[in-house]
């Protein structure tokens, strides 16, 4: 079965055919770094990590790009509230985001551009749009002229009249229409700015992603991803400005994950209904619990977070963990055995796992295959069956789990001396923080990470979580 994925652009399942096989260029909108990451950010990072892993498992060579938005109105507001600078705020929460992805075991992107590193390229991008009469300068800012782009609305599948009615748009001096969006924002007192041909200012959010993605992957690339909330206006605007500049298609497949909700509302910082990753992980024995919580819902569907559903995922992880420990004990002195016809059943289930993932990365079906393997393996071991069958099953389960980013930390007991060393580092870091020696505290945190542990702060306490 060939890999099929749901393309938001066409609104249908399509067979995946890379532009230059086996290479796949993939760009995902990363975080705007102004606060601690919450479970919604974790779901996005993990969902696209699984997609990337499965593409590589399917023999594709993936170049994965995920950006950091480190200049934005929200960052400026957070800096003012904290009495800090936008740069310091961006650096602090970029570290927090990286800590979260390490904790989840997400593979780092091949490239992770920051918006502030691409300002000259963004200025050149905007100049190109003005030359093509697709944008206009007004009051020190520059706006994209939506009326000049005939296909505007093709991603959100709405006409400009519909969008005009629902979208108030940004206000600005000399702006011609509500749907026109800022490519360059004239600077205001106290805000970070760069010199541009239209005066001091900074790039708009949409032009940042268009510039970084095409600079690293080329004008036309395979996959562009993000949350459902980014379809309009962000991704719609990316398409409009990118295709207006180049006269060629932008991304070919658009993948969007569902949102994380709490009591039916989108989990967000503005609504103050979010759960941080640290808070969630403080409630469970292993980061895989959170991954299982995500995997039990298809990536395109919303997830409503509740303590009950999260506890179910914790119990699911414990079932896997008990089985791995049982296997380690039972297979410690495994006698040699020849291939048995029963192995066919195991490898049929392995094929079922791939079939599920080929169907638009259907993780609930794939996870069900893993549970079936556990049930089969427990029955073999507990009834004194052929252990070489259980050994092969153990390997298949581990291989499938790796494709989902599961079971990679193993279940081996930790050396008590190692735990004591990490606890001593926690005490050292806490002392440094009390003395406001934050540089020292950061160095100690990094030292713990080098030893395979992340320090998680929650409810006034610091916990050690093993990440490898």
Provide structural commentary.
This protein is α/β, with parallel strands linked by helices. The protein has three domains: 19-266, 3-Layer(aba) Sandwich (Rossmann fold), CATH 3.40.50; 283-403, Four Helix Bundle (Hemerythrin (Met), subunit A), CATH 1.20.120; 416-466, no CATH class. 47% of the residues lie in helices and 16% in strands. It has 15 helices and 16 strands. It has helices spanning 39-57, 73-82, 86-104, 119-131, 160-166, 205-217, 231-246, 277-281, 287-295, 307-330, 343-358, 363-382, 387-403, 416-434, 438-450, and strands at residues 4-7, 12-15, 23-28, 61-66, 135-138, 141-144, 181-186, 194-196, 199-203, 221-227, 251-257, 260-262, 265-266, 303-305, 453-458, 461-466. A hairpin with a 4-residue loop joins strand 1 and strand 2. Helix 4 packs across helix 6 (205-217) and helix 11 (343-358) runs antiparallel to helix 12. The model is unreliable at 333-339 (pLDDT under 50).
Blueprint (SSEs and pairs):
Layout: E1 4-7, E2 12-15, E3 23-28, H1 39-57, E4 61-66, H2 73-82, H3 86-104, H4 119-131, E5 135-138, E6 141-144, H5 160-166, E7 181-186, E8 194-196, E9 199-203, H6 205-217, E10 221-227, H7 231-246, E11 251-257, E12 260-262, E13 265-266, H8 277-281, H9 287-295, E14 303-305, H10 307-330, H11 343-358, H12 363-382, H13 387-403, H14 416-434, H15 438-450, E15 453-458, E16 461-466
Parallel strand pairs: 3-4, 3-10, 10-11, 12-14
Antiparallel strand pairs: 1-2, 5-6, 6-7, 7-9, 8-9, 12-13, 15-16
Helix pairs in contact: 2-3, 4-6, 6-7, 9-10, 10-12, 11-12, 11-13, 12-13, 14-15
